Amino acid sequence: MQTRRFGQYDLSLLMLGTVQWGMPYGIANRQGQPGPAQVREILAEASEAGVNCLDTAAAYGGSEEVIGQALQELGLHERIVIVTKVRPLTPAEHANPAAAAAAIRDCVHQSLRRLRVERIPIVLFHREADVVFLDVLEDMKRNGVVGHVGTSCGQPMTAAAAQARLEALQVAINLLDRRHLRSKAFAAAATRGAAIFVRSVYLQGLLLMDEPAVPKHLRAVIPPRQRLTKLAAKAGMSLAELALRYVLSQSGVTCVVTGLESLEQLRQNVRMVEQGPLEAELTMAVDSAAVQLPDEVITPALWPSR
Q: Are 275 and 238 in contact (CB under 8 A)?
């Protein structure tokens, strides 16, 4: 699998999203949470296919523990680059810098323990507002506990995410949500060489759900999705392939993060990534089919709880 350089790492274009490994997740998830044995199988096959990076977080239930155990049992710790995230700080912690610093340090040390490592290659803030405490992560970087620092970004990206001290950003981009692509902050980060990890490629699976299963409050996605499905079919590919390769076609993207619960999903994603970016003409056709959907439709954080 092709890689892209970031710091001392050659990161595979495909990064495995692991929230499903620690908790039930995803509007279209029908397979449930994989067990430890399934996770080991997925990681072993992913490594053989050249996938060498994982995305996790302290807030992803038992994901970090499952990863740490599996990597140790497989002997893969030295071959896998882990990206994890500091849990969102509470309002009380935000109001007290000393408490915030203590919480950040404790969270990172707990992640080290759960992941069974002495150093985490990349640590992000899970919430963009917490970037005001970036100096705490930078201090941990100087002490060798953390390799690179950054943040996961909301929509739209704020000016805080544009600062040069942030070495890595995680953003949501997909066929129906291009807000980050239109952001000057995104362009500036790409220009200065920050790592950009793209999540929500399938919009939590909403892009690929059977039409009758799409919840009523999200059915605004159906007409544009139908047009995009026709574009994909004309190009001889599935909508899933169009979605993944469209993101790979965007300048500045380092890795595409895709969550999965099964070996078959891994194999499908590997096959699609290996096809590379879309041809320029098809990328432009996708852009021309763009529609402006309401934020509450294309932002999973705004969806009602199920």
A: no
